[in-house]
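Morning, I've got a small favour to ask if you have a moment. I'm working through a protein record and want to make sense of it properly. The fold is given in discrete form, as structure tokens running alongside the sequence. Can you walk me through what the tokens say about the fold? Thanks so much in advance, here it is:
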Amino acid sequence: MKLEATVDGLMDGLRADLERLAAIPSISFPGFPAGPVEEAHDLLAGLLRDAGVPHVERLDLPDTAPVIYGEILPPTPEAPTVLLYGHYDVQPPGDEALWKSPPFEPTPVEGGLRARGIADDKSNVIAHLGMLRAYGGRPPVGIKIVIEGQEEYGSAFDDYPPSDPERFACDAMVIADLGNLRPGTPTLTTGLRGACEVVVEVRTLDEPRHSGEFGGAAPDALLVLLKALGTLHDVHGDVAVEGLRREEWDGTTYTEEEFRDLAGVRDGVPLIGSGSLGERLWSGPAITVIGLDAPSVEHAASAVVPYARAKLNLRFHPRQDPREARDRLVDHLRSLRPFGVPLTVTPGDTGPGYEAATGGPAYRAALAALKEGWGEDASYVATGGSIPLVNGLAKAAPGAEVLLFGAQDSMCNLHAPNERVLFSELRNTVVAMCAFVREYAAGHGTGADA
């Protein structure tokens, strides 16, 4: 109970700091001002110093928002070192008319606060801070802190850690850029699907031609493209591209009712695909058409369409080689000749998935810590999202265990209007982080109490 009482005594201050941080529109996308990003960086660097981190520095890379790096040396030579990761940048708010309150004015909601970035990822950064405060800046393990400022858009930092392995050397990492399957359900994420993008184009005519005079014989580029896209899935909605890895999912997943509510699926509209939701969302592939260039309905002319283009997003199994997955999709599309017409297929950005090893001492400590934080055994899930830096950190510290948990939950509306965080999830995450470093240190013979 001493740990919980300590954390409870810190919550008012943590909430105040979270509100200060969430009020800063730290958007690192092109076209947004750099000032708020710098402001968020400076605020966090100061909070870490005040929490007892003796070494806090700014890491600058080309065309990249500043990275906060901090370090606390291990209390004994035998103590392990834990790297804590988070990010202080946020997604743009999107259409502010869809928000119930201004996105950068933290606003109370039932049990929590609403603001852009308050869950993803500022709540998790504050949870790291809470653990450090609980131990008075002297945790029972060595600490390395990495808080980046351009995770949402991507940057040169994604590939930087392997070039500086000594800086990122550690025994375990807590990647706090996600959270629980649902509020109140402690969750460890063990896998991240990989992702790639592919553009497919069709040009059939020099220019549009009158559909009454030429339609029926002149090849319609949009029809060609739609026929090609229709081959990507079978009659059930499962991905039909050969060679994309799919396995049964044996972890925890959503109920269909939860998923329909989260996705906003309309009444009477079925889900697509077969198998469990975990298999469809995490251990199998997904292909989504994320963009389409063709005449708009509003401005459509009675003409055969000469050119059409689509952008596809492929998510693939965490253990599948990213180039192999990308090439399977590209080869499938290039092999098609809808109505005898060839396609132009251009592969784009490709990022690997990640599957964490389980069963080591840090994993066991995390299971115990999550149970202490939430009062029940942890579940494990994967995610279809990606955290680009994870693979870079894993390459820099190949022997480190990687743990993915945090204060978000799948119902927090991250990347959507009205994002929110619950105080109960933040509080329990701080308890779990404190318990984790205690349990992990004890496993190395260096236990301590908060």
Remarks:
- The mean pLDDT is 95.
- Residues 2-22 form the longest helix (21 residues).
- The CA atoms of residues 58 and 68 lie 5 Å apart.
